[in-house]
Amino acid sequence: MAEITSYPHRVEPQEVDFTLRASVASIINYMLNVAGTDAHNKGFGVDVLQGQSFTWVLSRLAVEIKSQPCQYDDIVVDTWVNEFNRLSSTRNFRVRRGDEVMAEGVSQWCMINMETRQAVDMSTLKDVYERAMVAEPSPIAVPARLRAIEPTTSTSRPVVYSDIDFNRHVNTLRYIDLVFDALPIELIENNHGMRIDLNFIAEARYGETLTIGGINDGNVWQFEISSDSDKTLCRAKISF
Amino acid sequence: MAEITSYPHRVEPQEVDFTLRASVASIINYMLNVAGTDAHNKGFGVDVLQGQSFTWVLSRLAVEIKSQPCQYDDIVVDTWVNEFNRLSSTRNFRVRRGDEVMAEGVSQWCMINMETRQAVDMSTLKDVYERAMVAEPSPIAVPARLRAIEPTTSTSRPVVYSDIDFNRHVNTLRYIDLVFDALPIELIENNHGMRIDLNFIAEARYGETLTIGGINDGNVWQFEISSDSDKTLCRAKISF
Q1: Cβ contact (<8 Å) for A165 and B18?
Q2: Mean pLDDT of B25-50
Q3: A19 lies within 8 A of chain B by CB
Q4: Residue B125 DSSP code
Q5: Pick from A12, A25, A177: which is nearest to B33 by CB?
Q6: In DSSP terms, which residues pair with B226 in a beta bridge?
Q7: Where are the domains of chain B?
Q8: CATH number for the domain whose boundaries are B5-132
Q9: pLDDT at residue B43 tops 90
Q10: Is residue A240 within 8 Å of residue A226, measured between CB atoms?
């Protein structure tokens, strides 16, 4: 059994929104960067997996944000893995400014073969993974499974250069931007707490066209991002 | 007289493009972040200016990129001010990986009154500025004055939440993204050297619609970004 590991970070100017607080996309980026660094440090990072043509894929993510750190704040991101089976691994996050908990997250990952894009049995990582497990429960409820919606609003745009990662797939963080760009800006400006559930279903490539559809019911906003030929890429639910 | 000041930086995953090298927008962001930090450290940062309702505005920028640093590279950004008059200040940049110079830049700034949005005479900063001046020439030719173009291609999209800074104006870096998103991706992928000249003319606000028009002649690409009622925001020229 291992301990929770903590990574320091300073909130940089390019990470804040017009309220001078770290955007939700930035807070999620802190979590995902720490996931990559911690997996590397514990011996199961993408660098090790790529030797076998495997890689990590984020399948679901839940984040609860109580408050957002401000520009130049020194924060700490805690992370720990507390569940692991053949098909899925659960990694948790806590974003703190000193002792003040500002955001918490739970992510679920699977391992895929980069050539076939099929899920891989993770049992081969069992030994190295068991040494990294931490006996600490997830800080919030695990990510919800989101169902299809019937959007009442919809916008489209092409995938561009600044959207794509080294696989030429749309970067995960861009989906967060698309979702938050579709919300009324006042909700973001006056945020005093939200929960976000995200399901990542398929990947969009350079040259495709993204469509983001949304519905709203009271304090709950749901979005579905799809691409050419109605391929569903990502579903999101935000509760203020 | 002062010395060139150097700021270290590590290239983070969110700063690289699909080639796993820092994007041009990220390299320019390194320069602009260091400009803000260095001005603060030398006593003429926005924090001091805001006491008088003044702020810095970037008017022109030229950047020459020989090569782009890779993910997790440790780089250094050198910066120095070498010219200063009533209406404009010149700040220079050099991005290095060890002794290898990867990019150089020259920026021209003016000071404006935040309420009237009019230029302010900078003579009041003369004493503090003269102590910060460095007797070192600019590393590349100063930014060109760019003329209007007659675009042959054009795309439009609204200003969204993730575009705007604390003034609710479109962030400078977003113009860089728009320009590079409009280039053939192969030019970015195979980049072995480029020069970028940028003129910042007016600011776009949340709710406006951005239009980006472009022309191409051989290795030279020119763009003009405008918003509602043909207000010109930014002109860019890229020479590969």
Answers
A1: yes
A2: 91
A3: yes
A4: G
A5: A12
A6: B211, B232
A7: 5-132, 153-239
A8: 3.10.129.10
A9: no
A10: no
Instruction: State the pLDDT at residue B126.
Output: 82
Which residue in A has a C-alpha nearest to residue B174's C-alpha?
Answer: A162
Q: Tell me whether the CATH fold assigned to B5-132 matches the one assigned to B153-239.
A: yes
- Exposure class string for A30-39: b at 16+ Cβ within 10 A, else e: bbbbbbebbb
Nearest CA to CA, how far is B165 from chain A (Å)?
Answer: 4
Smallest Cβ distance to A160: which of B33, B181, B206?
B181
Contacts of A76 (CB under 8 A, 6+ apart): A6, A7, A8, A9, A95, A96, A97
What type of residue is B41?
Answer: N
Nearest CA in chain A to B28: A14
In one-letter notation, the amino acid at residue B208 is E
The whole-number pLDDT of residue A45 equals 85
Give the pLDDT of residue A195: 98
The Cα–Cα gap between A235 and A237 comes to 7
Give the model confidence (pLDDT) of B161-205 as tens digits. 999 998 889 999 999 999 999 999 999 999 889 999 999 999 999
Q: For the segment B128-147, what is each residue's pLDDT rounded down to a tens digit?
A: 888 889 999 999 999 999 99
Element (H, E) at A187: helix A185-189
B188 and chain A in contact, CB less than 8 A: yes
Q: What angle do CA B13, A164, B197 make, to 5 degrees?
A: 85
- What pLDDT, on a 0 to 100 scale, did the predictor assign at position A158? 94
Selected from 3.10.129.10, 3.20.20.150, 3.40.190.10, 3.60.9.10, the CATH number assigned to the domain covering A153-239 reads 3.10.129.10
Degrees to nearest 5, angle at CA B217 with B215 and B222:
40
Cross-chain Cβ contact B18/A157 below 8 Å: no
Q: Using an 8 Å Cβ cutoff, are B222 and B215 in contact?
A: yes
Query: What residue ranges of chain A have pLDDT lower than 50?
Result: none
**Sheet containing B54-65: order of strands:** B5-10, B74-84, B89-97, B100-113, B54-65, B194-200, B231-239, B220-227, B209-217, B153-158
CB contact under 8 A, B13 and A33: yes
